Amino acid sequence: MVITEAIHEHVLKVPASAWTPAVETDGESRDGAWVAELTGKLLNGWPKGMRLIVRKERPHPGAQLRITDADGMRITCFATTPPDRPIAALELRHRLRARAEDRIRAARATGLRNLPLHTTAQNKVWLEIVQIALELLAWMSMLALTGKARLWEPRRLRFRLFSAAAQLVTTGRRRILRLTRHWPWTREITAALERLALLATLG
């Protein structure tokens, strides 16, 4: 949600005692994140029962703050209507929904943006292929990648990992994948392959 100047001013006036620790799905506190509810004249003219929840969170290392952030904290807010749920639970639900939207964006970048075939049956097969690709990407990120590479979206993965030039060589009854040394992300590729190979031996 876009933070207007009026909302931003109210966020700066929220007392320290009004901030509640944000939570994770396991019920534990989310490190470096707090939530509060904005009330009062700010909501004049809003639909009845509307609630305005704001979260402040320490940004990830290297993240650039926005003009609407304050005191070194990343500020975001959203409006919702459930009257009887704690604000931490509402914020968690909203954050999980944002992750679902990330998956939808990834699906669009993987082939869901257009249905290229003529009949419904053909496009159904296409959707199945897109779903398989998304699952493979998700499992690859969890099992093979680490650090910032886990956050790369499909377009970046295609450019940095999947389009790397390589040569498959067979020698001494072994197959060796030779990657160019000059590719900036060769280390990420080899590390990912090593992790997958280790998982295969453990399995």
Short characterization:
The chain is an alpha+beta fold and about 200 residues long.
Explain what you see.
- The protein has 203 residues and is an alpha+beta fold.
- Among the domains are: 5-97, no CATH class; 159-202, no CATH class.
- 42% of the residues lie in helices and 20% in strands.
- The chain contains five helices and six strands; from the N terminus they run αββββαααββα.
- The protein has helices at 5-13, 87-112, 120-143, 154-162, 186-202; strands at 20-23, 29-38, 51-57, 74-80, 166-171, 174-179.
- The strands form two sheets. It has a four-stranded antiparallel sheet, sandwiched between helices. A two-stranded antiparallel sheet has the order 5-6.
- β1 and β2 (29-38) form a beta hairpin.
- α2 packs across α3 (120-143).
- The chain is elongated.
- The model has no long low-confidence stretch (mean pLDDT 87).
